């Protein structure tokens, strides 16, 4: 029972990733694509959590945290590039 | 252009410590669980990258006054010293030793010389990643 429930949840997460991938490809502006990539990262993280329940292992918990950190930093880098045109500033005017 | 980055800078100040302590945890737990020097080094450098993204590269250089190229040298020297130390005792190259010690506050702990080799890997990964990012980031 719980196994089929987990598989259905995994299928729904992959469907959600597929829908978000449509927004990445089609998205008219760059912020659309950045937010869609962030959403893909979060959905992937949830899918890893469900896979680790299905396989009954705790070995993937570090991967979940690392993927969350990398999605966060990647989104910040994307937004800084979109807003300022530069990812790493040399010297701020403060 | 006067910009206002209060939320990202405040978030980076807190999240930096979370990522850095998680990197240290992954580095120390690498013997028994997934992780180790490589992933720990990449996570520690990603914490510094978050600071570089939130602030600018000169501020981070004054906050963390580390010359990353010498960090690469220190890491390589540590790994080589750990590998070469058994040769002076008559054992083959890369022989590792371990023993059980009773440390204060922690209790009985098994300490292994592979940890020193892993520290070398950690320092080299942090040094290489931060050297690449600093070299690409500043184009003066």
From TrEMBL, chain A:
<feature type="transmembrane region" description="Helical">
    <location>
        <begin position="63"/>
        <end position="82"/>
    </location>
</feature>
<keyword id="KW-0406">Ion transport</keyword>
<keyword id="KW-1133">Transmembrane helix</keyword>
<dbReference type="Pfam" id="PF04066">
    <property type="entry name" value="MrpF_PhaF"/>
</dbReference>
<comment type="similarity">
    <text>Belongs to the CPA3 antiporters (TC 2.A.63) subunit F family.</text>
</comment>
<feature type="transmembrane region" description="Helical">
    <location>
        <begin position="37"/>
        <end position="57"/>
    </location>
</feature>
<keyword id="KW-1003">Cell membrane</keyword>
<keyword id="KW-0050">Antiport</keyword>
<keyword id="KW-0472">Membrane</keyword>
<keyword id="KW-0813">Transport</keyword>
<dbReference type="InterPro" id="IPR007208">
    <property type="entry name" value="MrpF/PhaF-like"/>
</dbReference>
<keyword id="KW-0812">Transmembrane</keyword>
<protein>
    <submittedName>
        <fullName>Na(+)/H(+) antiporter subunit F</fullName>
    </submittedName>
</protein>
<feature type="transmembrane region" description="Helical">
    <location>
        <begin position="6"/>
        <end position="25"/>
    </location>
</feature>
<dbReference type="GO" id="GO:0015385">
    <property type="term" value="F:sodium:proton antiporter activity"/>
</dbReference>
<dbReference type="GO" id="GO:0005886">
    <property type="term" value="C:plasma membrane"/>
</dbReference>
Automatic annotation (TrEMBL), chain B:
<feature type="domain" description="Na+/H+ antiporter MnhB subunit-related protein">
    <location>
        <begin position="7"/>
        <end position="131"/>
    </location>
</feature>
<keyword id="KW-1133">Transmembrane helix</keyword>
<keyword id="KW-0472">Membrane</keyword>
<keyword id="KW-1003">Cell membrane</keyword>
<feature type="transmembrane region" description="Helical">
    <location>
        <begin position="111"/>
        <end position="133"/>
    </location>
</feature>
<comment type="similarity">
    <text>Belongs to the CPA3 antiporters (TC 2.A.63) subunit B family.</text>
</comment>
<feature type="transmembrane region" description="Helical">
    <location>
        <begin position="38"/>
        <end position="56"/>
    </location>
</feature>
<keyword id="KW-0812">Transmembrane</keyword>
<feature type="transmembrane region" description="Helical">
    <location>
        <begin position="12"/>
        <end position="32"/>
    </location>
</feature>
<dbReference type="InterPro" id="IPR050622">
    <property type="entry name" value="CPA3_antiporter_subunitB"/>
</dbReference>
<dbReference type="Pfam" id="PF04039">
    <property type="entry name" value="MnhB"/>
</dbReference>
<dbReference type="GO" id="GO:0005886">
    <property type="term" value="C:plasma membrane"/>
</dbReference>
<protein>
    <submittedName>
        <fullName>Na(+)/H(+) antiporter subunit B</fullName>
    </submittedName>
</protein>
<dbReference type="InterPro" id="IPR007182">
    <property type="entry name" value="MnhB"/>
</dbReference>
<feature type="transmembrane region" description="Helical">
    <location>
        <begin position="68"/>
        <end position="88"/>
    </location>
</feature>
């Amino acid at each position: 029972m719980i196994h089929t429930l987990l598989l259905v949840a995994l299928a729904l997460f992959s469907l959600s990733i597929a829908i978000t991938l449509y927004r990445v490809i089609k998205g008219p502006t760059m912020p659309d694509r950045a937010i869609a990539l962030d959403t893909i990262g979060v959905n992937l993280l949830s899918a890893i959590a469900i896979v680790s329940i299905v396989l009954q292992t705790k070995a993937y918990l570090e991967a979940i945290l690392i993927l969350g950190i990398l999605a966060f930093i990647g989104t910040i880098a994307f937004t800084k590039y979109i807003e300022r045109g530069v990812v790493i500033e040399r010297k701020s005017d403060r | 252009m006067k910009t206002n980055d209060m939320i990202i800078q405040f978030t980076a100040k807190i999240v930096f410590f979370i990522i850095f302590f998680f990197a240290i945890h992954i580095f120390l737990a690498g013997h028994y669980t997934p992780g180790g020097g490589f992933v720990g080094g990449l996570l520690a450098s990603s914490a510094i990258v978050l600071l570089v993204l939130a602030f600018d590269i000169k501020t981070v250089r004054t906050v963390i006054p580390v010359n990353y190229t010498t960090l690469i040298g220190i890491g390589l020297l540590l790994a080589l010293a750990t590998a070469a130390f058994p040769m002076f005792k008559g054992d083959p190259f890369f022989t590792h030793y371990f023993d059980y010690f009773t440390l204060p506050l922690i209790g009985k702990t098994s300490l292994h010389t592979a940890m020193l080799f892993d520290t070398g890997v950690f320092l080299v990964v942090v040094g290489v990643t931060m050297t690449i990012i600093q070299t690409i980031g500043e184009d003066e």
